[in-house]
Amino acid sequence: MKKVIIIGGGLGGLSTGVILAKNGYNVTVLEQNAQIGGCLQCFYRQKTKFETGMHFIGSADEGQILNKMLRYLEIEDQLPLSRLDTDRYNVISLEGQQFEYANGKDAFIEKMASYFPSQTDNLAKYCRVIDSIASASALHTLKDETPLNAAGTEYQLRPMDKVLEELFTDPLLQKVLAGDLPLYAAERGKTPFSVHAFIMDFYNQSSFRIIGGSDIVAGALSRVIAKHGGNVRTRSKATRIVCDSTRATGVETNGGELLPADYVIAAIHPMRTMELLAGTNLIRPAFRHRINHIPQTTGGFSVYLRFKENAVPYMNYNFFNYNAGTPWGCEQYDEATWPKGYLYMHTCDTPNQQFAKAGTIISYMRAEELEAWKHTTVGHRGKDYEDFIDRRARGLIASLAKQFPGIRDNIAGFHVSSPLTYRDYTGTENGAIYGVAKDVALGSAGRVPHKTRIPNVFMAGQNINSHGMLGTIVGSIVVCSEFLTSGFLYRHILEAGK
Ligand SMILES: Cc1cc2nc3c(=O)[nH]c(=O)nc-3n(C[C@H](O)[C@H](O)[C@H](O)COP(=O)(O)OP(=O)(O)OC[C@H]3O[C@@H](n4cnc5c(N)ncnc54)[C@H](O)[C@@H]3O)c2cc1C
């Protein structure tokens, strides 16, 4: 059996581990933290559970793409799901009005057309464009022979805001449809329309919370790896990928133990991979430079709310609010204008939940704001930092209270994470919310390849294809195709999905 060491026990590393372990590879996943999962991790405060980076998933109904993949990963039956309101899984609050996204193409068009009757034809066209983009991807159709239609490439090269302007004459509707952009940290003029299209397609088909928290996904994947003879090691930080003059020979952990490997897959931020490969000249300086200068998405600042018992009715949808009348440019703020927008969600602990125990508010925070504390670690950042994040958290709660009057009376306590927290728990550069940013101007120079110049070293995780539940698993399929071929994987995923 060929020995594969996978660095990183997040969704990317664990799903890659499952695919290879079930297909005859001897897999070891190394996770630096005590808890596996990366962004799937949850934490408890006063017996209340909070999710840190996976609040809802899409396309999980029978026959839909994520459902097929979860079946192939052998975890579909281990994830208890709670469906979000089908007639308003997302609510966009803008300019004093609220607009709801409904699941399903026809219901979505009908709902949007009720707000914007003059745009009905344009909405139908918008949905056709999204369909054509999703169906141009072999990884979504799971067919090797999927023809790359014009939409597949065109909309990777055109910014989302420009395409929305072209499709819709009503500027308010353009903003409403961009209202979910915190889910991919889109920036005007940069983010390809295809990113928006894939997310819209993913959640519009069906949307769910994971009952009991996203760490269930990590635990389930880890058990499948073990079932197939693999091994997930926590508190095992990779400190070096060891190479001879032509290839990698193993991975050094915690600065000491050397684990021999036939293949190494780094499912971590690509800049961290470059650090692990610092000792070899097998990586070209130009490649290192490119990876080390790829733009990152903005950081995320999260406030975790612990509610009083039976006080806050469970909100079975996601609420996006914009204070400045537009979803665009919320990452460009100053002390006086922050937060320009936020995303607010409740966690789901039981089926048919009546009241929420916990909620999360997520807004942007730029890395420069945290410059003074960049050399500190979790729990040791000092009083200045604690004061700063406390002030920001209260600002965010005050902003929430404008939309949800009385909410403050029902909050028993709150907890905070900043981009530095994400940086320290996941190794993501600057705590960038979704890792590397896509930018139409950079084209392929802005992409992170799954192959490196070292023949047995690969990269996986959210930076390869895209972030999120589906995007990251698709990245795992891309890297595993190098071992098993894409045709083999597509066939088996389709069979598992039957
Ligand atoms: C605030 C937030 C909200 C989100 N909400 C959603 C959502 O609702 N739905 C959705 O689909 N997606 C969501 N996402 C995105 C999704 O969570 C991520 O795209 C995905 O989980 C990333 O998985 P990953 O394995 O690529 O990276 P990570 O989760 O970052 O995992 C990387 C792992 O590698 C480990 N590691 C790093 N360096 C080393 C090393 N040297 N040695 C050993 N281990 C190492 C880290 O500790 C970490 O566990 C959200 C993300 C964030 C931040």
Structure description:
34% of the residues lie in helices and 19% in strands. It has 498 residues and is α/β, with parallel strands linked by helices. The protein folds into 3 domains: 3-81 and 214-294 and 446-496, FAD/NAD(P)-binding domain (3-Layer(bba) Sandwich); 87-205, no CATH class; 296-431, no CATH class. The longest helix is centred in the C-terminal third of the chain and has 21 residues, at 383-403. The radius of gyration is 22 Å and the shape is globular. The two termini are 30 Å apart. 50% of the residues are buried. The model has no long low-confidence stretch (mean pLDDT 96). It binds flavin-adenine dinucleotide. Residues 7-13, 30-33, 38-40, 53-57, 237-238, 267-268, 272, 300, 302, 362, 422, 426-428, 433-434, 461-462, 467-469, 472 line the site of flavin-adenine dinucleotide (FAD).
